TrEMBL record:
Keyword Oxidoreductase attributed: no
Family: Belongs to the citrate synthase family.
GO molecular function, one term: citrate synthase activity
Protein name: Citrate synthase
Length: 383
């Protein structure tokens, strides 16, 4: 029997956090289309508690998160040292999460909400440190999204920008048992601490077939614009060479990623506002041709890449931004898996060679048997 590749379609556990059943994305039963305009803090509460917060609870979550968006001095010192060496931002983030687990590990205070706040601030700090820019401080009068944008851009965002980016963060907050979330759950099933689980999730997200795809999408747009090549020719050349066109297709959404449909409108608007419409126009040409040629639709990474560029981010930092958004979901799944108390330990089907013997082992075994038999006979005679 042929096993499904990559566990496609295999149900390995139950969850109350999110669902993609029938290609419809919901968070705790709420359609993503309805939640896309909800405050980010409200969605975090929903993912963790499976219900919407009251106004008082929402205010308290927002207040606590903003107050905790500060990094320990020792963490910042070590981050500055790490950022001196040229390396991918996701590598810096991987190490930073581990640092948070050592310079900030306080079981009495390291509840998920506090950890989420630190993760957002750490990611913003990585972006600033790479460009030798000063680290910013939060404004207690602002919400989480507004503060986060200020921390990584150094500019006070407009209300329109905050609204758009709030939607981006909500759409990326969770997505059932994706690769990085499943990785976090496997580690959580061993009852490891939050930081160990998050570090593992970051490692999984880094790959180009998962979170790293958004970086590759914008690299494609830059290559086309730099070379002046026609988008269709570029796509044909890559496909003829057996290479993927990043940002297209999804294992679950065969008729289109619902998140991409929402993000397309945001990408068009922000591209026009920042004089980046040339990139959006390229995306539209590629999108139309890809559907005509392969019947594949854009996924969540396709338009997110342009949105991040329009916010002034370097493409190498795009995946760290994905991590910032997805941490809320990772923590929700870590908590759920730890509460379940079951160790994830699947089995495999061995298909390699069998009945092999190490050179000389069989001869040695025969000699040992002969010696054992001789010793037995001698002992019998002695009796």
């Amino acid at each position: 029997m042929k096993l499904p590749e990559g566990l496609a379609g295999v149900v390995i556990s139950e969850t109350k956090i999110s669902s993609t059943k029938d290609a419809i994305l919901t968070y705790a039963g709420y359609p993503i289309q309805e939640l896309s305009q909800a405050p980010y803090e409200e969605v975090v509460y929903l993912l963790w508690h499976k219900k919407l917060p009251t106004e008082t609870q929402l205010t308290e979550v927002r207040k606590q998160m903003v107050s905790d968006m500060v990094l320990p001095d020792e963490t910042i010192r070590l981050m500055k040292y790490i950022a001196l060496e040229p390396q991918h931002p996701m590598s810096i983030l991987r190490t930073t999460v581990s640092l948070l687990g050592t310079t900030h590990n306080n079981p009495k205070r390291d509840e998920p909400l506090r950890i989420l706040s630190k993760m957002l601030t750490a990611i913003a700090a990585i972006i600033r440190l790479r460009d030798n820019q000063e680290l910013m401080k939060v404004n207690p009068q602002w919400g989480v999204v507004e503060n986060f944008m200020y921390l990584f851009t150094g500019r006070c965002p407009t209300s329109q920008q905050v609204k758009m980016f709030n939607t981006v963060m909500v759409l990326h907050a969770d997505h059932e048992f994706n690769a990085s979330t499943f990785t976090a759950r496997v580690v959580a099933s061993t009852q490891a601490d939050y930081y160990s689980c998050l570090t593992a999730a970051v490692c999984a997200l880094k790959g180009p077939l998962h979170g790293g795809a958004n970086e590759q999408v914008f690299k494609m747009l830059e290559d086309i614009r730099t070379t002046g090549q026609k988008p269709i020719d570029y796509v044909n050349e890559r496909m003829a060479a057996g290479k993927k066109i990043m940002g297209f297709g999804h294992r679950i959404y065969k008729d289109g990623d619902p998140r991409a449909k929402i993000l397309r409108g945001i990408a068009e608007q922000i591209a026009e506002n920042t004089n980046n419409s040339v990139y959006f126009n390229l995306q539209e040409q590629i999108r139309d041709y890809m559907f005509e040629k392969t019947h594949l639709h854009p996924n969540v990474d396709y338009y997110t890449a342009l949105i991040y560029h329009c916010l002034g981010l370097d493409k190498s930092t795009f995946t760290t931004m994905f991590a910032a958004c997805r941490t809320a979901g990772w923590l929700a799944h870590i908590m759920e898996q730890q509460a379940d108390g079951c160790l994830i330990r699947p089995s495999s089907e061995y298909v390699g060679p069998i009945n092999r013997h190490y050179p000389g082992y069989e001869k040695e075994s025969q000699e040992n048997e002969q010696k054992k038999h001789s010793d037995s006979e001698r002992d019998s005679k002695d009796k």
